[in-house]
Amino acid sequence: MGAISKRYKVVIHIASRFLFFILTVWVGLTLAFLVSRASPVDPSTILISRLMSMGGYLRPEEILALKQQILELYGLDKPVYMQYLSFIKGVLTGNLGPSFSFFPTPVIELIHKSMVWTILLLGFSTILSWVIGNVVGVLAAVFSRSKISKALEWISMSLYPVPYVIFALVLFLFFSLVIPLAGGVGGAGMAMQTLSLTYIIEVIRRLSVPSLSIIALSSASWFLSMKALALSVKKEDFVNYAIIRGLSQKTVTKYVMRNSLLPQITSLAFSLVYLFNGALVTEYIFAYPGLGRLLYNAIVGSDYNLMLGILSYSIIGVASAAFILDLIYPLIDPRIRYGG
Amino acid sequence: MSEFLLEAKNIAKFFGYGFLGRTKFPAVDNVSLTMEDFPKILTIAGESGCGKTTLARVLLGFIKPDRGIVLYKGRNVHKLKRKEKKFFRKEVQAIFQDPYETFNPLRRVDAYLFGTAKYMFGANSKEASTRVEEVLEFVGLSIKEVMGKKPKEFSGGQLQRISIARALLAEPRLIIADEPVSMIDVSLRMNILNMFKDLRERGVSFIYITHDLATAYYISDEIAIMYRGMIVEVGPASEVLLNQYHPYTKALVRSLPEPGKKDEWLKEKVNPPGIEIKEFLVPGCKYADICPNSSDKCRKERPPLFKVGNVKVACWIYQGQFQRP
Amino acid sequence: MKTVLKCSNVKGGYKLSEVYIDAVSNVSLELRTNEIFGIAGESGCGKSTFIKTIYGYIEPPLILKDGSIELYARDGKTFNISSLSLNNLRKNVWWKYISYIPQNAMNVLNPTMRIRDHFAEIYKEHMGLKKRDSYAKAQEYIESFGLPNEVLSAFPHQLSGGMRQRVVIALSLLFEPDVVLADEPTSALDVINQRVSLVFLRNAQRKLKNTIVVVSHDMGVQSVLTDRMGIMYAGKIVEVGETETIFENPLHPYTKMLIKSLPRLGDKTRRMGAKGQPPDLRDPPPGCRFHPRCPYSKPICRKEEPTFLEVEQDHYVSCWLME
Amino acid sequence: MKVPLSLKIAIGIIASLLVFAFILPNFAPYDPRRWATVPGDEPPSLTYPFGTTTVGQDLFWLSSYALRNSIILGILTASISVTIAFLLGSFAGFVRGSVSRNALTLLIDSFCLIPGLPVLIVLAYSWRKFLSPVLIALILSIFGWAWPSRSVRSLILSLRERSFTYTSLLSGFGMMRIFFYEYLPYIIRWLAVSFLGLLNWAIGMETTIAVFGLSTLEEATIGSIIYWALQYQSILRGVWWWVTFPILLLAILIVTLYELSKIISEFTGVK
């Protein structure tokens, strides 16, 4: 066995996960392309109606010329497969053309700015809720007969199914009417400035309520899945053997935790999808300057190209986050790292 | 019509592990078996993980082998047409290890009995129930005890008998029994093994798969010893088990704990088999690492089955002249 | 031959919602120093439950209704295991005076921990040793057992089943306890590995001169390994004696049937299996629990329970035929 | 067998919600969707139990009407998605040949890893002129089938490895007969739990999309009520009831449906 099979097994793990990452991105982008072309109204007429509504009368032939120009600009006049290829190339190289509502700024710039905020919110609340949910979950499983663990279970059971939008609204109501927060809620009117202390405190203050909304729900779901998992690990032979060997309750809890956290890392990758959707809507409700807010503005400004950009980069973002998490797993699980 | 009932030629089945299962290891490696047309009990003995169950599923036509073919009365088992498949199912049946897994826990046990009777003979319900009563009586149970009950309402021993009854309903020529008694209480095993012996008198052949050499000796005419997917020794049961030609068979029989063998059992030094996966990949003889009389030739080249008297042994020490070490 | 452990009238079982499974009913047994004592019996006869109660590992749904278990350690201390709390047992008795080899010992090592850390934990817990010197101590302890020392740095999944088994045996003998309880120490292993592990266990016992209790349904293993043995049936010990005498001259009908139904290499004569199946311990049959399956059962067997008699030198049996 | 108390409570709550959503609207004194049928911004009182909206709609009748649409939409999405999942998932579980099985599995897994919300929003946006509960249900089903087909596939793969599958084959039962007689009891349990799960997901997703402004135009759903409430800044203006009651209704419905699915999976838990 020795070194060869160890490296070999880890390389296998990474290679297969990378292949899956490529496949997910490809399927996602194809879906995005199909969705964009499946609309009953082609994007150019949307843009024209936008321009028309800004006043100024255009003669019919001018409208046709404008339409032709837009089609060329976005390559809509070429055959479908050409459009598809240029769409994929555009997404991968980052130029999806200018956004409609914030004309001429390119779509990628807008997305880049908001993506940073979303990653901040999502990263912060994912890690926090993962840790809280799992640690409390293990303790609740180890001391499963205590009242607190039963109460926690009951609370999580009622929190878990609630959609992010509903819970965000509940918090929004709570912090606007019951305990009004100074400076209102969310990140309205936040501009990106240089990193100064006041700016950071401001960011944390803006971050607090939306992340609280995400953390509450997702830690409830982690709590439930971990408690179920830890209860089954608790019955495993090696935990039983630890008790028989007279090890302290602390060590036994450590046994259960170490062996239950591993599978929770793999399920973290797949739970990202729910967290991401939740984050988008929570950002919108709390006017947090992330992708969610940008998406709403794109809808209001019927900025089709921006919407498509947000969609493509969300797909890539979630898939790469999941891929990174998959890389972490072999480093932690000795069974893969030190091949049998 | 070939003179063999069942013929397996150079069967190999690989299971992948590693990147998309690219690195293959042979769970069953170049195994050949023959069951002549007269009733006999052939035992396939070997430790857990030596590929016995995989071989059984290949013989039953459930898994396609990667190499080699299985012929039943001259016809390839894995390429049967619809009608031939029904004929094959009727003639070859199986009994599994865990009685509680043999039947669907949610369904009534008699559904299988009547289902088999109706399928095999197109019997209407009256004829089917007489056949069912007959086989249940043979295994020592009455229809009253069995009707309308789910698997968890029976003991392990009773369920295993029902499983045998189900197999007998098809009036098979050959029954492949995969560890049929290992989950049954020691004192009740004899009843089931005696049943196999009686059935052989009535013309039913058995392939009995087990890791327990004592029960193998008790009921079988012929025995094949398997090690890491390979048959290392095959021949008449008393010849193989009492004289043991292959070094692995020697180690097995000597390590068998039996009353009266205490001193010998405690003294002799035997080194244990190593890590399973690594040994499957060895090019030469898979027992080479541990075998007391292994040589370079053993490690590099796979020994063929040499004929020594009426026993076939896959070991280089029997190359050329017949000589007992 | 001093007594090292004495169980008197131990009554234990599983308290489920509406039903009580009488797994160990009124069992008395004496274990002696420097011997390997075997407990034989078929699945569901209560042998594993019995040694769990001896060890004092009583976790719901298992409860100890009555009876006492006394441990007379070689250093003069005595412990009433049945009355000590789990915590008390854990701190002062477990692993120092009595240790346990669990069933399915191949899979009881923590998959995410190296072997040496398993040793380090026990040294830290029971002897307060720091990690570094417990590694050294483990190193020399492993060598004294003849196990290769790269075992220590390996993870459990990197070792073969047999090797993991021997590591668990070595772990259980770490503080040279007076009594080691081994539950089905070999059932999952192949015959060759089983022999190596059992010989490994026996040599250790002969070196330490302590007492090892081997629970196994395999009569072959009992015959080659144990000095004395007891046969359990439906929660009761029906016969106790020297292993040779039990195999040469079994007295209890169930023991006779068990030994008669053992297939032997080289002997093809037809053997008869037992009739019926073991009783349901939720409502065990009255009187002698073997009477429904016993070929010699008399009316008294159905009414009263036979007493445990010493029929010949050091050979006890509880059966009305003998009285 | 004793029906557990929690089951009775769950069914009780759901029954009353269903009555509120399906029977009550028929007694509405006026068409709840039309504006200015009642004075606006009335706080909850005896005459208007849920209060009224700024645009003069009686929130009590409106939310009963909206709940009905939300539930219909949810049921539609759940049934379409479960059917697709059942067909695709069991096909992936049964298909011979490892290549086609791996391809299908990878496709299903990759679909589970694509963030549904932005895709659904883009799609809903392009069809926003024609949005109706039925169309929204179709759009949501594009993503609804992914997760349940993953679970039914692994369920079937595990069933195919069980010994009783081989016993049935030996007894002459064909794959079809095995599927309907042997596997169905296991699949029905998966069906019930997945359907309720999808129902919750669909209602939640519809509300999320609606909040982004992509809700049905003429038909009212819980999501559309919340959308208009936010558009009219109801929270900042203190018209809290416009948002609170729809949220409350939805939360109770979803939590109870989840309890029901929990009880079902425990109650019919096999071995």
Describe this structure in words.
The complex is a heterotetramer of chains A (340), B (325), C (323) and D (271). Chain A is mainly alpha-helical and 340 residues long. Chain A has helices spanning 2-37, 43-53, 60-73, 80-93, 107-142, 147-159, 164-178, 197-234, 237-244, 249-285, 291-300, 304-332, 334-337. Chain C has 323 residues and is of the alpha/beta class. Chain C is built from 10 helices and 12 strands. Chain C has helices at 47-55, 86-93, 115-127, 131-144, 161-172, 191-208, 219-225, 243-248, 253-260, 299-303; strands spanning 3-15, 20-32, 35-40, 62-72, 78-80, 98-101, 179-183, 211-215, 228-233, 236-242, 309-312, 315-317. In chain C, the strands form 2 sheets. Chain C has an 8-stranded mixed sheet, with helices on both faces. In chain C, helix 6 (191-208) links the parallel strand 7 (179-183) and strand 8. Chain D has helices at residues 5-23, 59-94, 98-112, 116-126, 133-144, 146-161, 163-170, 175-211, 222-231, 241-267. Chain D starts with a helix and ends with a helix. Classes of the chains: A mainly alpha (340), B alpha/beta (325), C alpha/beta (323), D mainly alpha (271).
Short structural description:
The complex is a heterotetramer of chains A (340), B (325), C (323) and D (271). Chain A is mostly helical. Chain A has helices at residues 2-37, 43-53, 60-73, 80-93, 107-142, 147-159, 164-178, 197-234, 237-244, 249-285, 291-300, 304-332, 334-337.
Keywords:
heterotetramer, A: 340 residues, mainly alpha, C: 323 residues, alpha/beta, 8-stranded mixed sheet, 10 helices, 12 strands, 31% helix
The overall pLDDT of chain C, averaged over residues, is 88
Q: What is the strand arrangement across the widest sheet of chain B?
A: 6-7-8-3-9-10-12-11
Biggest sheet features of chain C: 8 strands, mixed
Strand order of the largest sheet of chain C: 6-7-8-3-9-10-12-11
- Secondary-structure-derived class of chain B: alpha/beta
- Helical segment count of chain C: 10
Shape of chain C: globular
Order of helices and strands of chain C: EEEHEEHEHHHEHEHEEHHHEE
How far is it from the N-terminal to the C-terminal residue of chain B, by CA? 42 Å
Radius of gyration of chain C, whole Å: 20 Å
Instruction: Indicate the proportion of strand residues of chain B.
Output: 15-25%
According to DSSP, the number of beta strands of chain C is 12
Instruction: Estimate percent helicity of chain C.
Output: 25-40%
- The poorly predicted ranges of chain B are none
Strand content of chain C: 15-25%
- Euclidean distance between termini CA atoms of chain C: 28 Å
